[in-house]
Design goal:
Length: 433
């Protein structure tokens, strides 16, 4: 078999066989296929797509490209949630402790920030001392003892996805439906949880810009998971504006902790409770409505917050930061972004908000970049809010004042102010089962 023929076949819009897909993923994993041929096939897939059968085969090949978690050692039902990536999306930090506090195991493998989107592992590392690498034994033992562990994906785990993702990120081939589905579901299936809830983001801050495409992606991933014997649900949630008011790593941890203290932003709280409700329901804890109520109770009686503190302690983090989120170190400088005219915030290009946060140092331009955990944006106004000319719409935070200008320009260019009040968009567009 030759990689050249596989690229040509897909370039010409033909269907690849299982053997060809396995050959490709084996070559990605063992390094025998050069980056330019991997990238060329990703681009051909981007343009020509894949059938459901090809996407399933690609997913299973990614799943089988490395080690799998031996989940038989974890007692009880394990449930996971995965977001397709957004801006200000700190839901895992709230949802995982809620679910674990109610007795359902969460063995979570999370990612780092990608492009304009943030990642749970980076956010957790904003907590001084927090270890996002555990051995398999430590991971399993922590899940068994306290019900929750959150780690980064190890190198041995779905290694083909690591390689593929790095190349897709720099060759403009991230937003391809079969490639996203195989990437996410390949990793989820290798983690081998019993139940998986997917948070498929839709809108300007996500990889899928329309509700239709997001629903299609959700359907595809749910079907792949079910085919592999998993209980699956996907929620389609709004990413046409950032979730909550904080964008940036420690800022988002603070907002997540405040949400677990019962004083989080409305939109973020609603999405978190709904996701937690579906996770608990899939795990057999009752109807979705009953489970959403249980999730609310776990916030009001403090048990979800205690579970996060327990997890931070178990993974070496400074738990006093969670108990007193106001003690997180602050960025040296802040800068107010002011409205250029009066009117309603009609729209906010959320991807650009993510980029503005990246420009302040909160994300990476290359895999080697260091993150400034304190940097980011605190929004004061969001889509639908009325602003007076000169009123603060956001505060930028960074350790280097010279970063403010580009971030401010990006934010202002992304914020449309109009005299017309915009139509309110739903927070949750639909559920795919
Ligand atoms: N998240 C992933 O893990 N993979 C993708 O391809 C996109 C988002």
């Amino acid at each position: 078999m030759r990689m050249y023929d596989i690229i040509k076949k897909k370039r010409d819009g033909e269907e690849l066989s299982k053997e060809e897909i396995n050959f490709f993923i084996r070559g990605v994993t063992d390094g025998s296929i050069p980056d330019y041929q991997i990238s060329a096939l990703c681009m051909a897939i981007y343009f020509k797509g894949m059938t459901v059968r090809e996407t399933c085969d690609l997913t299973y090949a990614v799943r089988d490209s490395g080690e799998k978690l031996d989940s038989s050692q974890i007692q009880g039902i394990r449930v996971d949630k995965h977001s397709t990536g957004g801006v200000g999306d700190k839901t895992s930090l709230v949802v995982a402790p809620i679910v674990a506090s109610l007795g359902v195991k969460v063995a979570k493998m999370s990612g780092r920030g990608l492009g304009h989107t943030g990642g749970t592992v980076d956010k957790l590392e904003a907590i001084k001392g927090f270890q996002t690498t555990l051995s398999d034994e430590e991971f399993v033992s922590q899940v068994n003892s306290i019900g929750l562990a959150i780690v980064g994906q190890s190198k041995q785990f779905a290694p083909a996805d690591k390689k593929l993702y790095a190349l897709r990120d720099v060759t403009a081939t991230v937003d391809s439906m079969p490639l996203i589905a195989a990437s996410i579901m390949g990793k989820k299936l290798a983690a081998d949880d019993d139940c998986i809830v997917l948070d498929v983001k839709t809108g300007s801050g996500s990889f899928m810009k329309t509700v239709e495409r997001s629903k299609e992606l959700a359907r595809l991933m749910v079907d792949i998971g079910k085919n592999a014997g998993k209980k699956m649900t996907a929620l389609i949630t709004n990413m046409d504006r950032p979730l909550g008011y904080a964008i940036g790593n420690s800022l988002e941890v603070i907002e997540a902790v405040e949400t677990l203290m019962g004083r989080g932003p409305e939109d973020f709280t609603e999405v978190s409770l709904t996701l937690a409700g579906h996770m608990l329901s899939l795990a057999g804890m009752g109807t979705v409505e009953e489970c959403i109520q249980k999730a609310k109770d776990s916030i009001s009686d403090g048990s979800a917050l205690r579970k996060l503190i327990e997890t931070v302690r178990a993974q070496g983090g400074d738990e006093t930061l969670i108990e007193h989120p106001e003690t997180f170190e602050k960025a040296k400088y802040s800068h107010s972004v002011l409205a250029q005219r009066s009117g309603y915030i009609a729209s906010a290009d959320t991807e650009s908000y993510g980029i503005a946060s990246l420009l302040l140092g909160a994300g990476r331009n290359t895999a080697e970049d260091e993150i400034d955990y304190k940097a980011g944006i605190l929004l004061k106004k969001k889509t639908g809010d009325y602003v007076q000319k000169g009123e603060e719409i956001a505060v930028l935070l960074a350790d280097d004042e010279s970063l403010f200008q580009a971030a401010e320009e990006t934010l202002l260019a992304a914020t449309e102010i109009s005299i017309e009040r915009p139509v309110e968009e739903p927070l949750i567009y639909g559920i795919v089962k």
